[in-house]
Amino acid sequence: ETGVTQSPTHLIKTRGQQVTLRCSSQSGHNTVSWYQQALGQGPQFIFQYYREEENGRGNFPPRFSGLQFPNYSSELNVNALELDDSALYLCASSLLQGAEAFFGQGTRLTVV
Amino acid sequence: GIQVEQSPPDLILQEGANSTLRCNFSDSVNNLQWFHQNPWGQLINLFYIPSGTKQNGRLSATTVATERYSLLYISSSQTTDSGVYFCAAVDNYGQNFVFGPGTRLSVLP
Fold first, then answer.
1. Which residue of A33, A35, A106 is in closest CB contact with B42?
2. Most exposed: B44, B54, B57, B72, by fewest CB within 10 Å?
3. Which A residues 20-49 touch B at CB under 8 Å?
4. Using an 8 Å Cβ cutoff, are A26 and A1 in contact?
């Protein structure tokens, strides 16, 4: 059984560019959530996908968007990158909503 | 939405000491988990514990759901226990984790 994997692990982008982060959920898990963790803070909820539909969204602007694919893997897209988007982006998967969740190793995004 | 607090914010211990980390939450929870964030940023699952008591080696956790708090106990601490410990909760109305601010633990040799 494979765990949650994220790619890439590190990324440097220029302000105004667009970025796509990827997450493969743990085998059999149909719920994927994305979180943003700024330096020195706890993770903040971005959105959740359940069976390919967005199922909840935190306080993030529309330039943060996502997808979930039939194999339950997921993408996080961020358009028009801003310096404040620099953070660790974490993906979590779970078998059911509210069930135990498992996190990937994260993608560290730096916007310059 | 639910609010999650953790204490203490920072903790420095000598190797071999015991410690207790506390998590308070403001509403009934559907899910509560404790995580250890390693230096590379990955959140490592410690306990899934919306209620009751669990033990895993030197670590144990107790959640008293009626009083809205959870405790994480670390016994005989080791330098590898250093890092940030997060408590995260999902309330009965939501589907996402709300994280506490974390407790930064430093275990000195």
1. A106
2. B57
3. 33, 35, 37, 41-45, 48
4. yes
What is the tens place of the pLDDT at every residue in A33-48? Answer: 999 999 999 999 999 9
Task: Give the pLDDT means over successive 10-residue stretches in chain B (109 positions).
Answer: 95 97 94 93 94 97 96 97 96 85 96
Contact (CB, 8 A) for B36 and B74: no
CA angle B48, B69, B25 (to 5 degrees): 90
Is B18:B77 a contact under the CB 8 Å cutoff? yes
CA distance A55 to chain B (A): 8
The C-alpha R_g of chain B, in whole angstroms, comes to 13
Q: Do B41 and A58 touch (CB under 8 A)?
A: no
